[in-house]
Amino acid sequence: MSESATNEPAREQPPTREASDLVQDDPYYIVAPAPLAGERDRVLKQGDTFAVFDHHGDIRPVGMKEQGLFHEGTRFLSCLILRLGRGEPLFLSSTVKEDNALLAVDLTNPDIREGDLVKLPRGTLHLFRGVLLWQGVSYQTLRLRNYSAARIEVPFSLRFDADFADIFEVRGTTRPRRGRRLAPTVSHEAVVLSYEGLDGVVRRTRIEFSPAPRRLTATDADFTVILDPQQETRFLLTVACETGTGIVPKPFDYATALEHTAKSMNDSKARASDVYTSNEQFNDWVNRSLADLAMMVTETPRGLYPYAGVPWFSTPFGRDGIITALQTLWINPDIARGVLTYLAAVQADATIPDQDAEPGKILHETRLGEMAALREIPFARYYGSVDSTPLFVLLAGAYYERTADRAFAETIWPHVKRALHWIDKHGDRDGDGFVEYYRATPEGLAQQGWKDSQDSVFHADGTLAQGPIALCEVQGYVYAAKRGAAKLAIALGRIDVADELSRQAAALRKQFEDAFWCEDLGTYALALDGEKRPCRVRTSNPGHCLFAGIVDPDRAKRVEEALLDASSFSGWGIRTVAEGEARYNPMSYHNGSIWPHDNALIGAGLARYGRKHATAKILAGIFDASLFVDLHRMPELFCGFPRRLGEGPTLYPVACSPQAWAAGTVYQLLQACLGLRIEATTGRVCLEYPLLPEFVEQVRIRGIRVGSGVVDLLFHRYGDDVSVNVLARSGGVQVIVVK
Q1: Domains contained in the chain, number
Q2: Facing residues of 422 across strands?
Q3: Does any domain span residue 709?
Q4: How far apart are CA 61 and CA 53, in angstroms?
Q5: Cα 119 from chain centroid?
Q6: Confidence at residue 19, expressed as pLDDT on a 0 to 100 scale
Q7: Are residues 226 and 292 in the same domain?
Q8: Is residue 504 located within the same domain as residue 377?
Q9: DSSP 8-state code for residue 630
Q10: Which has the minimum average pLDDT: 58-67, 342-351, 579-588, 664-673?
Q11: What 3-state class would DSSP assign to 208?
Q12: Residue 516: predicted pLDDT
């Protein structure tokens, strides 16, 4: 439907409903009970294992209740509390080291009294807790040192438990039945807690202590240590996550496990280009982002894959993995290769309604754990996303341009063809030229774009859109996918295919402009509903259309103005939904919050249309937010309240942190500002109208791989001008600067 044929009705209030109804409609709503005051989680991840601790290094079954040691979708440790005498140690500090290999916690004793007498003054005893993960085992060292001039006797204890809850139970899903806890086994130095699930799998938590405790039960380990002045002693705790009947390797010693973990993280980071700037706070953000990517990228049987986020999404997601790969393609194309290989291997080859699967469709997510195995949730292998498939094709084309890897392109091409077939046949279910979604199973996701909350797609009066729904950004992804596939087809000698794909892309672009543009809003409709009525709501989604290149250049400035006016841009970033819209809520998941990856895609889109200063503005807002968040770690999202002088952004209570595509944000925005594009087929690094934000004077990038060559670049800002110097070069790499 064209804009001229659309008359928007007067805005009405959305139908009144109880707030609880909205939660009941969404079976995958993440429950958020009130947290403890000042609660700050500490996160570790390695492979298919992750752990969430409080800042003491404890695991407490209170507050948000997301803490624990998790392995393959199950919580293997739900309680671990260190007590000193009869109370808690006094907190000094804690941090996850910059390389994400180790959680380091410093504690001391409080004043310990006997009656009116202070028997042990505070600060006498130093306790250091070092925690790491390696191959399904949590290693914890506890180091105690006496800093007094007298001999002291110190009793301490560890309380522990394992509830073997599925990650969806932890998120708030209630199960009608659970498996059974097996009798624990207790020896002199070890406890084994076991659970037999309804899926028939026995899961065990093996807890071992060295040296052995003075007393050990199925829930507590008690120790007493006597320390001379300046004496230090150490204890080691290992918690192994065991599944099934396989033989589990004996855990390493702590030092060896730490060496393996650190080496793995450093090897992953070494594959990426090194970015260093004149702004040390910006470097802190870059370094933490790189370390988070190294932690989230997981070695799977099908290659490297960036798991989406901790704690709720520590598993392969199609959309998240693809976007992370696109964000980091210029610094490390190995991630994109792994994502393409993995998703090609699990591409749907049949119509399976319970999985929202159709031939050629690309995965939405996959889950391990008891509930997935029993199909209590549909996500063991689930395909309910409308955008993963065109994004897969887009990434395949971008990867070839970045690497010129023809052999891999030939391997991936059959999967690209199948994905294109899905787009044309199953994606466009009514043959109108647009790709829509409509879930095939009532247990699946109702909304299947990246904003997949139940209430994220609505009309101006607040009523929810009814499907099949055609999202504006998905049409952009399809446009970019067909253009990218056309270039890939040319490289592989399939000229006729390329011509047809180019023709289809051009036709889609014209049709998109006619159906989605809203002149009075100065932007594109969020979506078309099942009756082809546009959802005339100001959202961030059109920014993705800029990223994809489907937007008419004459309308790009209007879209920019809509995205950066005060109703959309909070000062920290662009909101998912503009203030003033019927369902706007700055504390919602998708209707007014700020997502860093969303802003990165928008920033890249604005730069594509020459709106570099707008990109720099977005980068500045997100960078400023990084100064306030813990560890400089960009969370999945934060609230969309307006920026207030002297205050940081308002955090979202159940946001994943780290989140892979949030970690990739800084690289995509920096690339967009620099106008950096790598053409491996011609051996060129192209820099189109490079710009640096005001807070960065200089950027050095080392190790940009182009085919068999490598180049190091130095950028220096002089006002609005940026100079580019080649520091080192090998393999005949050309550097082209357009100003």
Answers
A1: 2
A2: none
A3: no
A4: 11
A5: 49
A6: 45
A7: no
A8: yes
A9: G
A10: 58-67
A11: strand
A12: 98
313/224 same-domain check: no
pLDDT for residue 13: 45
> Are residue 237 and residue 281 in the same domain, yes or no?
no
261 and 46 in contact (C-beta within 8 Å)?
yes
Tokens representing 320 are 């998240």
In our burial notation (b when 16+ CB lie closer than 10 A, e otherwise), range 170-209 reads: bbbbeeeeebeeeebeeeeebbbbbbebeeebebbbbbbb
- Per DSSP, which regions of 271-401 are E strands? 274-277, 297-300, 303-306, 365-366, 381-382
Which of 142, 15, 169 is CA-nearest to residue 78?
A: 169
Q: Which two tokens stand for residue 240?
A: 């192994």
The answer to the question of residue 704 being in a domain is no
Q: Which tokens go with 110? A: 């409080």
DSSP-H helix ranges across 348-405: 370-373, 388-403
| 551-568 pLDDT per residue, tens | 999 999 999 999 999 999
Tokens of 160: 């522990």
Show the domain range for 400.
3-21+271-674
For 87, the 3-state DSSP assignment is strand
Helix then strand count (H, E) for the chain reads 17, 33
CATH number at residue 47: 2.70.98.40
The runs of H, that is alpha helices, within 433-533 are: 472-491, 495-516
Residue 193 reports pLDDT greater than 60:
yes
Same domain, 280 and 227: no
* Among candidate residues 211, 216, 272, the one with its CA nearest the CA of residue 237: 211
CATH number at 347 reads 1.50.10.10
CA distance 18 to 173: 20
| Residue appearing with tokens 């800029």 | 546
Residue 161: per-residue pLDDT: 97
Write out the E strands in 78-136.
79-84, 90-96, 103-108, 112-114, 117-120, 125-134
Above 50 in pLDDT, residue 274?
yes
Expressed in angstroms, the distance from the first to the final Cα of the chain is 40
CB atoms within 10 A of CB 701: 23
> Are 72 and 10 within one domain?
no
- Tell me the residue type at 105: V
pLDDT average, residue stretch 303-323: 96
* Confidence (pLDDT) at 245: 67
Rounded to whole angstroms, how far apart are CA atoms 88 and 579? 45
- Each residue's pLDDT tens digit, 368-410: 999 999 999 999 999 999 999 999 999 999 999 999 999 999 9
Q: Where are the beta strands (DSSP E) in 665-720?
A: 676-679, 684-688, 698-706, 709-718
How do residues 153-165 score in pLDDT, each as one tens digit? 999 999 999 999 9
Neighbours of 258 (CB within 10 A): 18
Residue 395 makes CB contacts below 8 A (sequence gap 6+) with 322, 325, 326, 336, 339, 340
In-domain check, residue 697? no
Residues 348 and 468 in one domain: yes
Instruction: Please give the Cα distance from 299 to 623 (Å, whole number).
Output: 30
Average per-residue pLDDT for the chain: 93
In a domain, 410, yes or no: yes
User: For 194-216, what is each residue's pLDDT tens digit?
Assistant: 999 999 999 999 999 999 999 99
Maximum separation of any 2 CA atoms in the chain, in Å: 91
pLDDT exceeds cutoff 50 at 227 = yes
Query: Interhelix angle for 596-608 vs 612-626, to 10°?
Result: 160
**Same domain for 286 and 195:** no
Q: Which of 626, 641, 674 is the last residue of a domain?
A: 674
Q: Is the pTM here over 0.90, yes or no?
A: yes
- Name the domain boundary from 262, 297, 330: 262
